[in-house]
Write a structure and sequence with these properties.
The chain is α/β, with parallel strands linked by helices. The chain has ten helices and nine strands. Helix 1 (7-15) packs across helix 10 (237-246), helix 3 (41-54) packs parallel to helix 4 and helix 4 packs across helix 5 (104-119).
Length: 248
C-alpha cells in the first residue's frame, strides 16, 4: 500500500498495479512547503477528497492524532474523512506539541472514540492504531506491544508500529496482537516475501517515495547549477509512464 502525496503520484501508483493507496502526512506537508505535523484538518480533508476522486483504489489516510483539539474532536475528523471518500484512517500516539508519546490510556480512549465514529458510518472505515515509539526514539518493544494491544482492544482493525526493522521483533508483534499488522517498508526491513511469511498483512511506504522524488529533483537541480549539465534527464522512460497514467 504505497503512499502518494498528490494526484499525479496517486495515478502513477494506480497505473503501476497497486490495489490500495495511503496518504502520507509528511509527503503532503512537503508538497505545501511545510514540515510534517503542520497540516490543518481542513487541508487534509480537501487533500483526501482529491486523491479519493483521482483513482478507483481504496485510500487509507495518515490522519496523525485525528485532530482531537479541533471542533468536534476525533469524532468529527472521522466523519469528515468518511465524507471525503476515505476507506480507512490511522490514529497515532505521539504529540508534536509536547514532543513526547501520549499516555497509553488517553491514546486508547481516542482509538475507542475513532472506532465508535467509524462504526456509525454507512460503510465503516478500516481503523489503524499506531504506536510511534520506534520512530520517536523510544526503543521499547514491550511498551510498543502493550500499546498495540490496548489499541486493538479499543477497536482498531489494524495495528502499526513504524520503525520496526528486525524480523524477530516484527514476529513478536504479529504473535502478540493477533490482528492484521502493518509494517513500514524502510530500507533495512526484510523483503515483502519474508514479512508475508512472518504473518504481516500490510506494507506501506510512508514518506519514503515522496522523499526519493524530492531527492531526485534536488540532485538534478544541483547538477544543473554546479556542473551546467542535464544528464539527470537522460533516458526519459518516465515520459511514457506519465503518458500512460495521465492519458485518460
Amino acid at each position: 500500500m504505497p503512499n502518494p502525496w498528490d494526484i499525479g503520484s496517486a495515478r502513477l501508483l494506480e497505473a503501476a498495479g497497486f490495489e490500495a493507496l495511503a496518504t502520507t502526512s509528511a509527503g503532503f506537508a512537503w508538497s505545501l512547503g511545510r514540515l510534517d505535523q503542520n497540516v490543518s484538518r481542513d487541508e487534509l480533508v480537501a487533500h483526501v477528497a482529491m486523491l479519493a476522486a483521482a483513482t478507483d483504489l481504496p485510500l487509507n489516510v495518515d490522519s496523525e492524532r485525528c485532530y482531537p483539539d479541533d471542533p468536534g474532536g476525533v469524532t468529527r475528523a472521522v466523519e469528515l474523512l468518511a465524507e471525503a471518500g476515505a476507506a480507512g484512517f490511522s490514529i497515532e500516539d505521539y504529540n508534536p506539541e509536547t514532543g513526547t508519546m501520549d499516555d497509553v490510556t488517553g491514546a486508547a480512549e481516542r482509538v475507542a472514540e475513532a472506532a465508535e465514529a467509524s462504526r456509525k458510518q454507512d460503510e465503516p472505515l478500516v481503523l489503524t492504531g499506531r504506536a510511534e515509539n520506534h520512530i520517536r526514539g523510544v526503543d521499547d518493544l514491550d511498551d510498543t506491544i502493550a500499546r498495540l494491544i490496548a489499541y486493538r482492544d479499543a477497536g482498531a482493525d489494524v495495528v502499526y508500529a513504524p520503525g520496526l526493522t528486525e524480523l524477530e521483533q516484527i514476529v513478536r508483534v504479529v504473535e502478540a496482537v493477533r490482528i492484521p499488522v502493518n509494517v513500514l517498508a524502510l530500507p533495512s526491513v526484510p523483503s515483502l516475501g519474508e514479512l508475508a511469511s512472518a504473518g504481516v498483512r500490510r506494507i506501506s511506504t510512508g514518506s519514503l517515495l515522496a522523499g526519493v522524488a524530492y531527492g531526485a529533483l534536488l540532485e538534478g537541480a544541483r547538477e544543473l547549477r554546479e556542473e551546467g549539465t542535464s544528464h539527470y534527464a537522460e533516458g526519459g522512460t518516465w515520459r511514457d509512464a506519465l503518458k500512460a497514467a495521465f492519458d485518460s
